[in-house]
């Protein structure tokens, strides 16, 4: 079981690193912010897998908090971009 | 376990690589987004190091609230919005001498850290044995909470005071009512808020309660509840007004005040300050943590709002 989980973990990290390209390169602010949101989902998945792999249920709480709070930055981005009405 | 080793190496390399990439970026917005992702990678690193408490604090504060705080700051620097054409450039002019001094100081700090690490005694048992011995007297069953709220409660009190000092300074520096119109957050946001906000409030209370026996506690719970308040401020459902100031001041101070009062109140009759009677330790710790949670949530939201809500005399522009 655990070798499979380790492979899943590595694949998820690879997908996260692939998405990192858009965070660094952009070109637009929205590209960066949306890829960060996508990476947040990958990080939640990895935390859940780690909770199982390391037999640490506390990591499920970490995944819960990350899933809840990752969207706050997106809402802040949208709300702050719309001030001024440009 | 070679796959897991490969994963660890890849994760460690990407943490260092992303840190370097973040520092080398020119665009402030890109730096903020990269820093948010950096926080997520760091939390995964802590999870791999079997430190779920630190991972929880990192995702609550690092990946969640500081991203929103930094975006708010950037919007403020750019004159009210995130669009780059809307204001002055963010990058301050720096000359070679400033950069040289900065590099020197950063290098010295790195050398000091390296010396401290290399000079630390190797392979000695830490304080875990002492903590394990004292656990029955702590009132809680989670060692991290026992250390934070009991064995080294004085340090934790000072951490709460740091946040209080921050909000006092912000209110001194920046005043005025927000005059910008409410952002057009549409039906997607309303659907999100309807589902996420009640869950976040419950999660905050859960983190506070579970802190007695598992990773959780006041700072994490405060960060989650603070995020709820930040969403309320962003959608303009919460509009800070001058009339809110007495309540806000009381809430900012409540955590520090209750913490200090409990610490002093248990002293006397042969007890030191902060030496909770074991029979009441859990009640006192949860009381302190609950008040500190509310204070932290209110303080973080006030820091996000970034100004004291007071009517400013005409002629003074506030943004």
Automatic annotation (TrEMBL), chain A:
<dbReference type="GO" id="GO:0005886">
    <property type="term" value="C:plasma membrane"/>
</dbReference>
<keyword id="KW-1133">Transmembrane helix</keyword>
<keyword id="KW-1003">Cell membrane</keyword>
<comment type="similarity">
    <text>Belongs to the CPA3 antiporters (TC 2.A.63) subunit F family.</text>
</comment>
<protein>
    <submittedName>
        <fullName>Multisubunit sodium/proton antiporter MrpF subunit</fullName>
    </submittedName>
</protein>
<dbReference type="Pfam" id="PF04066">
    <property type="entry name" value="MrpF_PhaF"/>
</dbReference>
<dbReference type="InterPro" id="IPR007208">
    <property type="entry name" value="MrpF/PhaF-like"/>
</dbReference>
<feature type="transmembrane region" description="Helical">
    <location>
        <begin position="36"/>
        <end position="53"/>
    </location>
</feature>
<dbReference type="GO" id="GO:0015385">
    <property type="term" value="F:sodium:proton antiporter activity"/>
</dbReference>
<keyword id="KW-0812">Transmembrane</keyword>
<keyword id="KW-0813">Transport</keyword>
<feature type="transmembrane region" description="Helical">
    <location>
        <begin position="59"/>
        <end position="80"/>
    </location>
</feature>
<keyword id="KW-0472">Membrane</keyword>
<feature type="transmembrane region" description="Helical">
    <location>
        <begin position="6"/>
        <end position="24"/>
    </location>
</feature>
UniProtKB/TrEMBL annotation, chain B:
<dbReference type="InterPro" id="IPR025383">
    <property type="entry name" value="MrpA_C/MbhD"/>
</dbReference>
<feature type="transmembrane region" description="Helical">
    <location>
        <begin position="29"/>
        <end position="47"/>
    </location>
</feature>
<dbReference type="Pfam" id="PF04039">
    <property type="entry name" value="MnhB"/>
</dbReference>
<dbReference type="InterPro" id="IPR046806">
    <property type="entry name" value="MrpA_C/MbhE"/>
</dbReference>
<dbReference type="Pfam" id="PF13244">
    <property type="entry name" value="MbhD"/>
</dbReference>
<keyword id="KW-0812">Transmembrane</keyword>
<feature type="domain" description="MrpA C-terminal/MbhD">
    <location>
        <begin position="15"/>
        <end position="78"/>
    </location>
</feature>
<feature type="domain" description="MrpA C-terminal/MbhE">
    <location>
        <begin position="103"/>
        <end position="175"/>
    </location>
</feature>
<feature type="transmembrane region" description="Helical">
    <location>
        <begin position="54"/>
        <end position="75"/>
    </location>
</feature>
<keyword id="KW-0472">Membrane</keyword>
<feature type="transmembrane region" description="Helical">
    <location>
        <begin position="218"/>
        <end position="235"/>
    </location>
</feature>
<keyword id="KW-1003">Cell membrane</keyword>
<dbReference type="InterPro" id="IPR050622">
    <property type="entry name" value="CPA3_antiporter_subunitB"/>
</dbReference>
<comment type="similarity">
    <text>Belongs to the CPA3 antiporters (TC 2.A.63) subunit B family.</text>
</comment>
<dbReference type="Pfam" id="PF20501">
    <property type="entry name" value="MbhE"/>
</dbReference>
<feature type="transmembrane region" description="Helical">
    <location>
        <begin position="192"/>
        <end position="212"/>
    </location>
</feature>
<dbReference type="InterPro" id="IPR007182">
    <property type="entry name" value="MnhB"/>
</dbReference>
<feature type="domain" description="Na+/H+ antiporter MnhB subunit-related protein">
    <location>
        <begin position="192"/>
        <end position="295"/>
    </location>
</feature>
<protein>
    <submittedName>
        <fullName>Multisubunit sodium/proton antiporter MrpB subunit</fullName>
    </submittedName>
</protein>
<feature type="transmembrane region" description="Helical">
    <location>
        <begin position="247"/>
        <end position="264"/>
    </location>
</feature>
<dbReference type="GO" id="GO:0005886">
    <property type="term" value="C:plasma membrane"/>
</dbReference>
<feature type="transmembrane region" description="Helical">
    <location>
        <begin position="284"/>
        <end position="304"/>
    </location>
</feature>
């Amino acid at each position: 079981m655990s070798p499979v989980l380790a492979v899943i973990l590595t694949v998820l990290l690879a997908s996260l690193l692939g998405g990192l390209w858009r965070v660094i390169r952009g070109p637009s602010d929205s590209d960066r912010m949306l890829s960060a949101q996508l990476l947040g989902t990958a990080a939640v998945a990895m935390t859940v897998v780690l909770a199982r792999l390391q037999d640490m249920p506390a990591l499920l709480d970490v995944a819960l908090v990350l899933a809840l709070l990752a969207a706050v930055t997106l809402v802040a981005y949208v709300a702050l971009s719309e001030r001024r009405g440009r | 376990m070679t796959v897991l080793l490969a994963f660890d190496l890849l994760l460690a390399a990407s943490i260092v690589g992303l840190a370097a990439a973040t520092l080398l970026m020119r665009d402030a917005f890109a730096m903020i987004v990269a820093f948010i992702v950096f926080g997520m990678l760091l939390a995964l690193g802590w999870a791999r190091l079997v430190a779920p408490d630190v991972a929880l604090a990192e995702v609550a504060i690092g990946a969640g609230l500081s991203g929103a705080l930094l975006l708010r700051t950037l919007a403020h620097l750019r004159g009210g919005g995130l669009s780059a054409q809307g204001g002055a450039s963010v990058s301050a002019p720096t000359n070679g001498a400033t950069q040289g001094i900065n590099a020197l100081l950063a290098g010295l700090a790195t050398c000091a850290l390296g010396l401290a690490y290399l000079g630390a005694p190797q392979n000695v048992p830490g304080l875990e044995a002492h903590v394990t011995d004292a656990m029955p007297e702590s009132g809680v069953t989670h060692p991290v909470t026992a250390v934070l709220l009991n064995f080294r409660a004085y340090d934790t009190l000072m951490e709460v005071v740091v946040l209080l000092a921050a909000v006092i300074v912000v209110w001194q520096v920046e005043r005025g009512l927000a005059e910008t119109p409410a952002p057009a957050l549409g039906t997607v946001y309303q659907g999100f808020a309807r589902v996420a906000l009640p869950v976040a409030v419950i999660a905050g209370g859960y983190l506070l309660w579970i802190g007695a026996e598992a990773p959780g506690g006041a700072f994490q719970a405060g960060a989650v509840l603070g995020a709820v308040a930040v969403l309320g401020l962003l959608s303009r459902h919460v509009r800070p007004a001058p009339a809110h100031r007495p309540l806000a001041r009381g809430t900012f101070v409540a955590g520090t005040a209750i913490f200090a009062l409990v610490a002093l109140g248990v002293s006397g009759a042969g007890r030191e300050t902060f030496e909770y009677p074991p029979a009441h330790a859990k009640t006192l710790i949860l009381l302190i943590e609950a008040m500190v949670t509310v204070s932290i949530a209110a303080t973080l939201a006030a820091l996000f709002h970034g100004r004291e809500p007071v009517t400013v005399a005409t002629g003074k522009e506030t943004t």
